[in-house]
Design brief:
Helix 3 (about 60-75) runs parallel beside helix 4 (about 160-170). The longest helix is centred in the N-terminal third of the chain and has 18 residues, at about 1-20. Strands 1-2-3-4-5 form a five-stranded antiparallel beta sheet. The radius of gyration is 20 Å and the shape is globular. The protein has about 170 residues and is α+β, with helices and mostly antiparallel strands. The chain contains four helices and five strands; from the N terminus they run αααβββββα.
Length: about 170
């Protein structure tokens, strides 16, 4: 009887540990998270909508709250975001030549530099290339997108969080 109780306890504990989310803490988990984000942008992918029921699996709750505040402040106009901030685009046919480099700044903070193209290599237009820098923050033990810096045009980088905050302020003065 004791052996059966012991085995049941061990198997239950193993099942719980296996089902527990992997804590956001290392470069491999951050890289896997960013790769999972871009799988939504592969051929015929639908991208990630921060306001969808699954948006909180990718975006930090504070960023979603900021986006919602901006939408409300800008209504009926478009807020600071007029495209998809993950791909810095409005339309895509897929993602090619995806490269992800991750640096863990702290157990709950990482930076991911991502480069890719929005079109296939043959006859690729220069404006198809993208360079994005993601600030990742841990939320409930999982990586989430805290901020995005679009460095595609080095003369005009676009910092998502900053742009949203500035847009909210500009609409509050109207």
């Amino acid at each position: 009887m004791r052996i059966r109780l012991f085995l049941t306890t061990v198997l239950t504990a193993a099942a719980i540990l296996q089902a527990a989310p992997c804590p956001a803490q290392d470069a491999d988990s951050a890289k896997a998270f960013i790769a999972s984000v871009y799988r939504h942008y592969e051929h015929e992918g639908i991208g990630i909508d921060a306001f969808s029921p699954h948006g909180n699996l990718y975006f930090h709750s504070s960023l979603i709250a900021l986006m919602l505040e901006d939408q409300k402040a800008a209504s009926p106009d478009v807020g600071a975001i007029d495209g998809d901030p993950v791909c810095a685009c409005q339309e895509w046919d897929g993602i090619w030549d995806l490269k992800i480099d991750v640096h863990v700044d702290a157990p709950d903070r990482a930076t991911a530099t991502v480069s890719f193209a929005l079109s296939a290599p043959q006859d690729r237009p220069k404006d198809s290339l993208r360079k994005m820098v993601f600030t990742l923050a841990a939320e409930n033990g999982e990586w989430r997108i805290y901020d995005i810096l679009d460095e595609t045009d080095p003369t005009a980088p676009f910092a998502l969080r900053k742009a949203i905050e500035q847009d909210i302020v500009s609409h509050s003065h109207h």
